[in-house]
Amino acid sequence: MKDKPLIVQSDFTVLLETRHPRADEAREKLSSFADLAKSPDGLHTYRITPLSLWNAASAGATAEGIVEALTTYAKFGVPAAVVRDIRTYVNRYGLVRIERVGKQLVLRCEDEATLRKITSYDALRSYWEPSPAEERHTIAVRLSERGAVKQELMRLGYPVVDLAGYQEGEPVGIALRDTLRRSGKPFALRDYQAEAVEAFYRGGAATGGSGVLVLPCGAGKTVIGIGAMARLGRATLILTTNSTSVKQWRAELLDKTTLTEEEIGEYGADRKEVRQVTIATYQMLTHRKTKDGEFSHLKLFRERSWGLIVYDEVHLLPAPVFRATAEIQATRRLGLTATLVREDGREEDVFSLVGPKRLEVPWKRLERQGWIASVECAELRVPMPADTLEAYRKATAREQHRIAGENPAKLRAAGRLLERHRGTPTLVIGQYLDQLRRFSEALGAPIVTGETPSAEREALYGAFRRGEIGVLIVSKVANFAIDLPDAAVAIQVSGSFGSRQEEAQRLGRVLRPKAGDNTAYFYALVSEDTKELEFAMKRQMFLVEQGYRYRSAPWREAEEELQGGEPAFANPGEGGQAG
């Protein structure tokens, strides 16, 4: 029994021995109902939380299935208190439901003690209808407060299952094409994409129609969104991260569906088209003329009888859009993301207002099936020149982060990596524009930033896709929604403070499957003996949870390997993240 990879502790933490032969299979089970908290070499710490259990329950997991998974891999068994609390939390999912009875919206709870407790909360009193509900075990809810009730009850520890249904929305003739419009090649949803669409739709039942689908970058989340649109056949509002993504959604819709140019609108600064299918950015919706002015473009949520709203990269949903979403709970909502992690900690609001996790497809599963590339990840610790190190030691904490990020020695390191991968499409990704401009000048590579005009940006992306540009330097604009499928190497030279979602998105730039050797390389250059190492550990946490291993090495060691003609820095066979 002791030859197992997990240690389950009474405080709801679970330790995973990453060098154990069964570590990968245990990780795949564990990550479906627990969150990675720490990832030192050899021993990763996961935490089971109420939200992680409720997301698992919404995706179909049972308390017994979770306990069985822990028991199967636990070295010393599962504490009785942990088993009891898992059952308590999982069984709480579905205990409280919102339903429609005639024209009335009601909160239903068969457990009278829980119902009395809910009705006693002062924070909820304004949400109830003054007229009593017509059935036992129910409270009448104001129609306008459907989202607010779910949000507040979630904070109080009662996740609400919303069974009140949705407005149908305006019908739209949209179907998936059998052959791609641009290339003429056959087209159909992949098995996991069709599975994701059905996990969201659920046969049109009230249990479906809202929720989040979690899939790796490069897995075709846009195609899944399009599949859901075709399944519903209703007017759709698509919200995404930037103008490049707007154009990609439009191109994919025209390539893979029967929609015409005239049926797809773009709602942005240049044109504000509201059509059967409309694509807009979060930035546009949250734009206002003054700091305290109104968000006038949020009216787009009411401009048409939408049957579906798609939230692309839902983990980036800004606060004003959350508030608007709370008011449109009668409209179907689909969130697409590679990670449920939000840097602002508002994962519970995504659960309450967009919907719970309906399906998560493990990254490693798609890698094994060849749908995404296998990736070698290396963290290379680059020493700083003496004068830079002296400036770092005298600087404030915020200044230190930038000084470490802009370490001038990273330029030489990046150049050596580019030599190693000469002829392979490569992205150099960073946070600081001055640093990226220096890289661009020294390496003779074009640069794309938020300041680059859209037409020029698209031209550079196109040249990279055609192989006319071998190296492209990109700022944070590359974190989201750029379609560069042939990129096989990413060199990250600086990043945000410990942002796990950013690390996942940047790795995603090289995950598309490659012809021939289906392998990609991801290098993170971090400054040695600085706080950047600590932030790098946090950034890597999400990818480690997905089963990726980082090889961590001093730059001098990596450079010796390069000089010796060794292959790229392969990860140790059974090792976890070093460092």
Verbal overview:
The chain has 579 residues and is of the alpha/beta class. 36% of the residues lie in helices and 18% in strands. Strands 11-12-10-13-14-9-15 form a 7-stranded parallel sheet, sandwiched between helices. Helix 19 links the parallel strand 20 and strand 21.
Mean pLDDT across the residues is 88
Report low-confidence residues grouped into runs of 5 or more: 570-579
Q: How are the strands of the largest sheet arranged?
A: 11-12-10-13-14-9-15
The helix content, as a percent range, equals 25-40%
Q: Largest sheet, described in full?
A: 7 strands, parallel
List its salient traits:
single chain, 579 residues, alpha/beta, 7-stranded parallel beta sheet, 21 helices, 18% strand, globular, disordered C terminus
Summed up, what is this model?
With about 575 residues, the chain is an alpha/beta fold. About 35% of the residues lie in helices and about 20% in strands. The strands form four sheets. Strands 11-12-10-13-14-9-15 form a seven-stranded parallel sheet, sandwiched between helices.
